[in-house]
Write a structure and sequence with these properties.
heterodimer, A: mainly beta, seven-stranded mixed beta sheet, four-stranded antiparallel beta sheet, 57% strand, globular, B: mainly beta, six-stranded mixed beta sheet, 11 strands, elongated
């Protein structure tokens, strides 16, 4: 199994909702990442987990809360989002801890109303 | 400030018409340069990693090269299925001692039959 899966594919939420994005990989990768990508822009790194511990937080607002329950799963909990948070949220994983050869999931398309 | 610039923004080629995409960077402490391909609505797909000036990597019709200031992605005799956005990303050491990953804005390639 050489893929990263993300659910849901699409999500529409109001500004007062609480929702979660899920990411899963079964490649035994030690690092997992969350990215945000706006239309026609490059991905922006949000969080990095190494060995299930949060190692990088790129000054992301607290309304985004990551969680790594185990080595295969990565969640992104969303609360009180703003319309400008609407974007494609990408999860990635890599064997090494140096961003090399990242496998990306297909993303969750998030719309905040 | 660390910067990664890709050119051109968009490129239209005829099938079989070879060309090159450029990724120039101004970072200190380069740790690696990555090339990705991204199809619309999908996550990026890893292509190459380059670590030092003079290094070259090849895969099918693609060849990536690296100098001290830029990287080129050469596409030889492209086919319509090569149409995608090509992203480069640079991993660099910051003055803080931490690594930072910076993506370029990408080159949208369209190959016509």
């Amino acid at each position: 199994d050489t893929e990263v899966t993300q659910t849901p594919k699409h999500l529409v939420m109001g500004m007062t909702n609480k929702k979660s994005l899920k990411c899963e990989q079964h490649m035994g990768h030690r690092a997992m990442y969350w990215y945000k990508q706006k239309a026609k822009k490059p991905p922006e790194l949000m969080f990095v987990y190494s060995y299930e511990k949060l190692s990088i937080n790129e000054s992301v607002p607290s309304r985004f809360s990551p969680e790594c329950p185990n080595s295969s799963l990565l969640n992104l909990h969303l609360h009180a989002l703003q319309p400008e948070d609407s974007a494609l949220y990408l999860c990635a994983s890599s064997q090494g801890l140096n961003y090399n050869e990242q496998f990306f999931g297909p993303g969750t398309r998030l719309t905040v109303l | 400030e660390d910067q990664v610039t890709q050119s051109p923004e968009a490129l239209r080629l005829q099938e079989g018409e070879s060309s090159s995409l450029n990724c120039s960077y101004t970072v200190s402490g380069l740790r690696g340069l990555f090339w990705y391909r991204q199809d619309p609505g999908k996550g990026p797909e890893f292509l190459f990693t380059l670590y030092s000036a003079g290094e070259e990597k090849e895969k099918e019709r693609l060849k990536a090269t690296l100098t001290k200031k830029e990287s080129f992605l050469h596409i030889t005799a492209p086919k319509p299925e090569d149409s995608a956005t090509y992203l480069c990303a640079v991993l660099a050491f910051m003055n803080t001692g931490f690594q930072k990953l910076v993506f370029g804005t990408g080159t949208r390639l369209l190959v016509s039959p």
